[in-house]
Amino acid sequence: MRFHFVAMLVLAAPQLAAAQFPIIPREQEIELALSAAPPAVAGGAGIFVYADSGYVRARESTNGFTCLVNRDSFLAGYEVLKPTCWDAAGSATIVPQILLIGKRKAAGTSAREVRAELEKLFDEGKLKYPAGGGIAYMLQGDIAQYDIATGKIVRRAFPPHLMLYAPGVTQSQLGIPMDSAMTDERAPLIYSPDRRFSYIVVRVK
User: Fold this and answer.
1) Which of 46, 61, 55, 1 is nearest to 23 (CA)?
2) Dihedral sign, Cα of residue 164, residue 168, residue 172, residue 173
3) What pLDDT sits at residue 19?
4) Distance from CA of residue 188 to its chain's centroid?
5) Tell me: the pLDDT tens digits for 140-167?
6) How far from each other are the two terminal CA atoms of the chain, in whole angstroms?
């Protein structure tokens, strides 16, 4: 799987590489996961929490959304916490990827092996991305430092934002080059987790 990183978070990856996050207490992780979305969405969302064996379900969804604290950045050689709530389309397609990554991470599988497994599953049609538009809420941003003792976010690697599914869309189609968009928090960014899919990233306050 090829990762094309286009956000400030990724440019800072070498400084984040040493960060390691221990298991967060269950109720604290639930609160962090749900804080990714507005209360009207989070209230009915399903929840997964990260444990010694990977992600385990904490609550079923009643509105199609799924919230969890994503830990997939280890595939790119750095560690951040990414509280995220995906809509129904993302819950059916992206969340299974994140659950698999979490399971392999917990088992100590190398990033290289996990990337190869994901690539194989995509090639076999067993994993996929949403075919159309949709949304993933990330209203806590990407967390570089988190204090488990207090439950407080100490430092963010990337600010709160929305991830709008935009398969096939490129930065040039947004009318602003990436270097300009990176320095203007009002501007949208394209983020492509691999060659198959893109998001429009909209930073929010």
Assistant:
1) 55
2) negative
3) 54
4) 17
5) 999 999 999 999 999 999 999 999 999 9
6) 32
For position 84, what pLDDT does the model report?
A: 98
- HSE, CB side, 13 Å, CA atoms: give it for residue 22: 6
φ, ψ of residue 138 in degrees (nearest 5):
-135, 65
Q: What b/e string do you get for 127-155 counting C-beta neighbours within 10 Å, with b at 16 or more?
A: bebbeeebbbbbbbbbbbebeeeeeebee
Helices (H), the chain: 8-11, 13-16, 26-34, 39-42, 88-106, 111-123, 178-182
Enter the tokens of residue 24: 């967060």
CB 113 within 8 A of CB 107: no
| 50 contacts 32 by C-beta, under 8 angstroms | no
Bin 77: left if φ > 0, else alpha if -120 < ψ < 50, else beta.
left
pLDDT, position 83: 98
* Residue 122 φ/ψ, nearest 5 degrees: -65, -45
Buried b vs exposed e over 44-79: b needs ≥16 C-beta within 10 Å? Answer: ebbbbbbeeebbeebbeeeebbbbbbbbbbbbbebb
CA distance 70 to 179: 27
**Which H helix or E strand runs over 197?**
strand 197-203
pLDDT band at 195 (very low <50, low <70, confident <90, very high): confident
